[in-house]
Amino acid sequence: MAEGYKNSPGEALKGDKLREECGIFGIYGPGLDVARLTYYGLYALQHRGQESAGIAVGDGRRIHLQKDMGLVSEVFNHEKLNCFQGHLAIGHVRYSTTGASQLINAQPMVFHSAKGMLGLAHNGNLTNITKLRSQLYSTGSVFQSTTDSEVIVNLIASHSKDSLVDAIVKSMASIKGAYSLLLLTEKKLIGVRDPNGIRPLCLGRCGNGYVLASESCALDTVGAELIRDVEPGEIIIIDENGLNSHVALQDRRRAHCIFEYIYFARADSYMDGFNVNKVRREMGRQLAREYPVEADMVIPVPDSGIAAARGFAAESGIPFEEGLMKNRYVGRTFIQPSQSIRDLGVRIKLNPIRDVLEGKRVVMVDDSIVRGTTSGKIVNMLRECGVKEVHLCISSPPFIKPCFYGIDISNEEELIACHKPIEEIRRFIGADGLHYLSLDGLLNVFGEEGKNFCAACFSGDYPVEIPNAHDRDKYILECSAR
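and the corresponding structure tokens:
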């Protein structure tokens, strides 16, 4: 293993995949079982967060909250769901960065304020969190958690003389970064999307009610019909008067997160007018155009590499095969291998099919490389199965810059492409060929809309102010506590 890329004992299972903060789901549905529908909505969003889950339900008089560490199915059962009575709800599933896997940071968060009870579920990351927290401390604010979500609530509460919507608008003017928010009062459901639209949020109709969620797949699960995506800078207010929209901030650069399409989102979701599965297939087609190779088969690294691999196979004419079998029962609670046998981590998750692979020249398609360690282990497994050649094709550009908007890498030291040229990465991984999709090729997949994406992790072109060099270390420490 190369110097500077040593994994912790549990790193083998985390591998080269990035983690996003969370998924959010909200529903306003008089006459509906909103708690159970929120449970199913969170189930559909479980891929976005597997450390904690929570549901808050409003009944017109107060907000009832249940949350805990674990998967949705571990936190809730029929008895707990039956205890919820109300007609509006929000839910949350969460990933955290290192050191922040604590119940106190689980969401939704519910607070008592001058405006009554207020619940909050947040997806994203604020980049001026250090400055905001210091300002709020100086005016007497008290924090119970280490999340930036609590900073947002304190900002809203600081505008106590304004209406709730006006307080949200003023708070949005102060915060910088990426966020989709769901707020719950005893009687209202409110959705908010950051003015650049970095983090996703969509709106659907469910019977006579409405649903807000991180991805449209959650709407499908509860039988809701997708209406549209929430616009960047838009506030959606849903109550007994129906649905109202308020544009708080506009005329900002649109910068939807490109990595939602590469990896985070479920393949059956629609985001900002694009089907994720179709986009991933086109990424694979573009990759095949940029990197023609002679091979006997195309295999994906499951599951996120499947659609791109099918696209590569269709464009190149090389047969698509399932060469790696994934163990889908390795979850969050799996006992991590010890330091001495940590290489077993990848083998427990993926197993090559020897009869398919032996003696073949293989194109292996994956969505990204972050540290390079897992890719190297997979290539080695293929070699042990008698594969003659391994050409690793990545359906995204080299990850060269940290993300400050909700992905769990805020340190360039973790990014192999930030320190090594492609040829050196190829040798490190042990592949016969290594090719990344070009940034132009990636953005061209979206046509004219390609200009409306944040691809800062590939280019360093950050659409929203990030911490300066003086504050960078402090910011990274802040992130590690969230």
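(Above: one complete record from the training split.) Residues 276-290 form the longest helix (15 residues).
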